[in-house]
Hints:
- By secondary structure, the chain is of the alpha/beta class.
- It has one domain: NagB/RpiA/CoA transferase-like (Rossmann fold, 3-Layer(aba) Sandwich), CATH 3.40.50.10420.
- About 30% of the residues lie in helices and about 20% in strands.
- The protein is built from six helices and eleven strands.
- The strands form three sheets. A seven-stranded mixed β-sheet has the order 3-2-1-6-9-10-11.
- Strand 2 and strand 3 (about 80-85) form a beta hairpin.
- Helix 2 packs parallel to helix 4.
- It is globular, with a radius of gyration of 16 Å.
- About 35% of the residues are buried.
Amino acid sequence: MPQLTTSLRQSLRQKRKKILLSDRAQFNHSINQSLLKAGVHLRSSIIASYLANDGEPALDLFIKTCSTTQCQHYLPVLDRQRLKFSPYSWGDELENNKFNIPEPSAKSYFPATLFTTIIIPLVGFDEHGHRLGMGGGYYDRTLSFMLNPLCRKKPLLIGIAYSSQMVSNIKRQAWDVPLDAIITELGLTCFTTKAKQRLFTS
């Protein structure tokens, strides 16, 4: 099973990187528009997203919009084997982490438990909201508190991907935290009642 997962991950990453620049620009615009249309920045007081890496969809327009509204926006920062989140407005100073992924230079950290919405990049997804990540387990460890049945305050988890990253089935592991929704260039798909209640779906 691990070998199959590794092979699938590599295949999906290669497929994502091969998207033509002209198509990628159009797809990214559609993804950003769907994210804004869903009202994430209007209905969430504290949001975490990401800066694109390894061919991931870029959320530049969304982040710029958050930077000009009252929305509090954050980016992930590596903290040993987990992620913390640091405030970021478009144009703030960045520095690369050990994976050469840009992070905010200002080290003011907030834990995932405080967020209303966390927007997550991914390598693959299926129709049930199961997500295949890069393999490092950073988001899984960071969001493990959500698997506790006593946890009442859980952020809305929105995956971002291209439609070509969808696969028929991803076997969920015990440590996997499923998505509430996914946004691709084809639009928004909600997997949970929470997502339907908190996002504009039409």
